[in-house]
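Why do we care about 3D structure at all? Because function follows from shape, and shape follows, mostly, from sequence. That is the central idea of this module. The next example makes it concrete: a single protein chain, its amino acid sequence, and then its structure expressed as tokens.
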Amino acid sequence: MNSINDAKTVNEQYSSSERLSTRISIHDKYSTNKMGFGNWIFSNYDIRNGMKVLELGCGTGSMWKGHEEVIRPCSQLVISDYSGAMVNTARETIGEYPNIIYKQIDIMDIPFEDNSFDAVIANMMLYHVPDITKGLNEVRRVLRPGGSFYSATFGIHGIMEYLSGILSEFGVKDGTSMTFTLQNGASVLGEIFSDITRKDYKDSLAVTDLNDLLEYIYSLQSMTALSSIPRDTIKETLSRHMKDGVLTVPKEYGMFISK
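And the structure:
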């Protein structure tokens, strides 16, 4: 995918928070790991009193809800996204704090001086960046020596691979960008960072109401091939894979911590 088309896809996917909220909600409702991916991510942060922290690609900001123990000790917390609409949603979700700055930022052109932050966060977004090397060099530039870069992502053997296999008869293909996954993320990061740790989050979806899964599917840009297919047809196809009223969908998520 070239940079122009990739930027267009990101703008279409994240011009409003509705589609992203739909995708988040199915995880909240049907994930078998009750810890929750967001809580697991936060459990891996080493953010201490007085640190300056930058988040790139904040999305709706929902992961920060209930984590004041991380917010308040920061001397400064910059919550940012490529999409201005997402920044506005995050502000509404998280609220105003004296140490939080909300800002629209492109990871490939971070408007801060060198060595500005003790920690930088970029979860579930690096695969959208048109020039990931440029973006990671910007992260390295603004990160202080000894600082940590947190980047959660997905693996190739998860939801999209599973759904694409089930729905292949309708022309569905897994069009997800694979530029930054659990499988290749360490090598991508290794071009910029020297100390990289991978952590895996074990989970799956146990879906009991296929209507919720249909909403998720139709929120995905990669599922546009289904736009002319009646939803009942897709629902019937999915129902054939249910066992005892449950459709088990594999998930593969994790995080890299780079120094």
